[in-house]
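re: that chain from earlier
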Amino acid sequence: MLIDQEQAGLMRSKTHPRQLGIPLNRWGRNLIACCPFHAPEENSLFFYDALGYWRYRCLQCESEGDLIEFVMRNRFNGMDEIQARAEALDFLGAQEPEQQDPLQDEHPWIKEIGGEKSKVLDSFVRYCHWAACKSPSSAEYLASRGWSIGQAQLYGIGYYSGDPEPFVSYCMLSGIERHQISFYLDNLEAYREPRITIPARNSKGLIHSVYGRLMEDDGKSNPYVSYASGPSDIPFNIQAENENPIIVEGLFDALTADLAGIPGVVSTMFQELTESHLLKLKACGAESVTLLLRREANRREQEFRIQRYLKMAESLNLKFKSIVLPKDETVDHLVCKDGADQILSLIEQTEIDTVHTHRRSMLLQDIKENYDNAMGCPPDLNVGYALNTFPRLRQEIDGIQSGCFYVSSSPFGLKTTLLTSLALDLLQSNPQLKIIYIALETPRRQIFDRMVAMMTGSSVLAVRKQNADENVNEMTLQATRDLMGYVRDNRLEIWEDQPLFDNTELLKVLKDEQKDHPDLIVIIDGIDHLKITDRPDLSDIHERRSSVMLDIYKALDIPLFLGGELIDNNGILVGPRPYLRDSDATYWLESKDGKLTLTVNSQRLGNNNLYKGEILIDPESNRMQEA
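^ sequence. v structure.
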């Protein structure tokens, strides 16, 4: 869509829909009125300023144009086009006040410092919107989000193919030099993949950046980039005179809510909410803010972060509400499904947060979600991860669930065999699962050999060199490929011992892993003498490690297996003891009278004996399974 340069001054700086003399209502950041072209009683005609000047568009009959064309059609419809245009220009010009600021006629890119940037960004927005109207892929993407091209026009949403040359040619025709493009759109060359483009404006309505969104993303990383360097702390869709802004995370969360007529919705673009965001909203008149967040997997960490936001708002004398949406729900999904009234009603019914009401609100949401999850699980379905070679154990403990599990054995070496057998079973039975196996007492190569041997049914010695039996060599090759496949697919990592476990660093690494792999299990073989303490200067490495592991379990809420010794005061290897109170269950493997017996006991879960069964061990590979 190109701008008629003869009309540019009037359209850009002078004309406003209020000069048309028709009833207007605020609708999001746009204005809405009855459409005189198809149904005078239907509010479907939008007036918007997304492309640098005011235009109109009816979402029902698809009438569209600038304000001059609106006057031509509405007031001077019987005249020929040239005479109607002249009358429309005269009509709009006559509506202007007699005394005006001498700078009033100047475009913002002349009045503003660094105004060339606005000129370049405005041109990019108009070009990308024109490209969106010609691009089937952008139309398909917008349709998948519940948007039409006509609705996208209201917000200047466009499409950029990743090739800058057509845009450069367009700018040359508009008098913009190439060096200006590369200077102000300094990230244009960096991102060559096709993206949906969305202009971002400051509180004065001037474009300060244009964001690009991938049309295909993994749902884990931030899909947005900025084509123009600039301030990153301006809330997207910020508006002047906004007393009660609603803060959401995604751009389409804000856009869909605004399109539905919810006033004052802004987005942090998946960035952390900062004091600078709140200060900018307060400068626009904010007296209270409402935060609508998507539910995160780590609820504990999310709750602490909301508490920080609450303190920031209180320090700025802003009233604060926080709402965590149901699992897997987003604002744009809820608006499309239930409408704007549901969101507004939810906000109205939510109490203003204090430290006390925030804790209570989070607790009530957690209790409700816990019940919904429980009732959504059929009685014949295991809650935890599957164990195919331990079927009765899986049934008795309802699968491997989140918890801290201590594994030991007599003889002592059998606990590593059990842990390796459990790790392989979990990998082979749960395609979505990732296991991090931390070997504190065994070189990593030995763990490889044990796993390959268990997968082939051969001995460890047989997989360490070429075998006279070619079938064994072929099985070893295939098992090695399978093991490498688990690593390549990022489903298995095996870590060796470190001189010192720094709980802060280890927890940070595992938190990052959990973001990419919510289905994560950590197995740590070699945690001896489980003891609990908060002292950082412990001389006993086992006590330090034990403290670190308990910190990890409490922070991550995942299945955590700790393999080590159970020792009494006389230094004798014993069975489960009550001092292991911090573990959810103790796995005790004992060889007696030629039989292997696995017992799973729990003091914490209210049933001291959860499981007891005979275990078979392959005489060649040492892989374990239920009898």
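The first helix runs from residue 5 to 14.
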